Amino acid sequence: MLKTYTTKSRIFQRQYERRKRRRERRKRLICTILAIATIFLLVYAGCIGGKKLGEKISEIRYPVAYSSYITEYANDNNLDPYLVIALIKQESNFVADARSEYAGGLMQLTEVTAEEYAKKLGLTDYNYMDPETNIKIGCYVLASMIKKYDNIDTALAAYNAGVGNVDNWLKNPDYSSDGKTLYYIPFSETRHYVKKVNQYIEIYKTQAVIQSDNRKDE
């Protein structure tokens, strides 16, 4: 009787241990699945959060303000709005009251240039530092230079370094082979300027940007 009981006890013990091992395997499997699911969710959330953070950083680095003024006066002068946006980014980074040694405003106009082109536009009582006025005059100046040189890069060089310098460079075979386009710009600042404006054009065509209300930014 004792032997029979002992045999049954061992059988029950083995069955219990097998059930225990199965429960432990199921538990480990469930824990593994939960861990994988948690990792997946964290990675997914990180990707989404990272994307949104990247977009926010992009918006900060590449903002657009006064967009309706830019669109209006770019269209009035047959200019690519992205060109105007890129130029303003390089000139003032959309700071309306930005000033350098000689120029001011969003498109960094000198008082002399603003006065010359304001007359051509029929403006009498004006403030060239006003955002709308600055963009209006600046777009007209840029369009005039593109018309004069029939080349955007040459026009950008003239916008930065002045028409007199560019005209002299075009006459120099070291800088121009045809007298119309510049294959080398002797001023390093102007070379960098033209390069950066072109880079910004491509960036703004692909980046999500802030479209700010004009009056809000004034």
Descriptive overview:
The structure is a single chain. This protein is mostly helical. The protein folds into two domains: 1-60; 67-217, Lysozyme (Orthogonal Bundle). The protein is built from nine helices and two strands. A two-stranded antiparallel ribbon has the order 1-2. A hairpin with a 4-residue loop joins β1 (103-104) and β2.
Main attributes?
single chain, 218 residues, mainly alpha, Lysozyme, 9 helices, elongated
Provide a compact summary of the structure.
By secondary structure, the chain is mainly α.
**Helix count from the secondary structure assignment:** 9
By DSSP, the count of extended strands is 2
How confident overall, as mean pLDDT? 82
- In CATH's first tier, which class of the largest domain applies? Mainly Alpha
The computed structural class is mainly alpha
Low-confidence stretches: 45-60
Q: Report the major sheet.
A: 2 strands, antiparallel
How many individual domains? Answer: 2
Helix content: over 70%
Quickly give the CATH architecture of the largest domain.
Answer: Orthogonal Bundle
Strand arrangement within the widest β-sheet reads 1-2
Shape: elongated
Strand content: under 5%
What name is given to the CATH topology of the largest domain? Lysozyme
The H-and-E topology, N to C, reads as HHHEEHHHHHH
Structural Rg: 34 Å
Distance between the termini: 101 Å
